[in-house]
Design a protein that fits this description.
Elements: H1 6-29, H2 35-61, H3 70-91, H4 98-119
Helix pairs in contact: 1-2, 1-4, 2-3, 3-4
């Protein structure tokens, strides 16, 4: 496969922005202080998970990779974001209450799968 397409870069940026927005919303809903450093602390496990998801998708489906597909790309990125994010939170001493895992899984599914579903409705993103 040749150089990474503009379309793929846009999809990766959308995913990463949505992961950071998820973290920012969570921090805001809990009125947590230290905005920039706190957001970085909260976001890095999930951002790392999203990157792992992208790498896994690329490795497994590189011959037919499409960043805009709900499956496999969206699902793999979502699952890796949640699972790796939670594991990294535990390793770094951050909380992983069951309610947080459920909320994070749901919101990240809506974000990471939802935009792909909407994008499929646009003529410019269809194959």
């Amino acid at each position: 496969m040749g150089p990474v397409s503009r379309r793929t870069v846009i999809a990766a940026v959308i995913d990463l922005l949505l992961v950071v927005i998820f973290c920012a919303i969570g921090r805001r809903s809990h009125d947590e202080a230290n905005v920039v450093a706190g957001l970085a602390t909260t976001a890095w496990p999930f951002v790392t998970g999203a990157v792992i998801g992208w790498a896994a998708t690329w490795a497994l489906y590189r011959d037919k990779f499409d960043a805009y597909l709900i499956f496999p790309t969206g699902v793999l990125v979502w699952v890796c974001t949640v699972v790796a994010g939670m594991v990294l939170r535990v390793v770094s001493g951050q909380g992983t209450a069951v309610s947080f895992i459920l909320v994070a899984s749901t919101v990240l599914a809506v974000f990471l799968l939802g935009w792909r579903g909407l994008a499929r409705l646009l003529p410019a993103t269809k194959n």
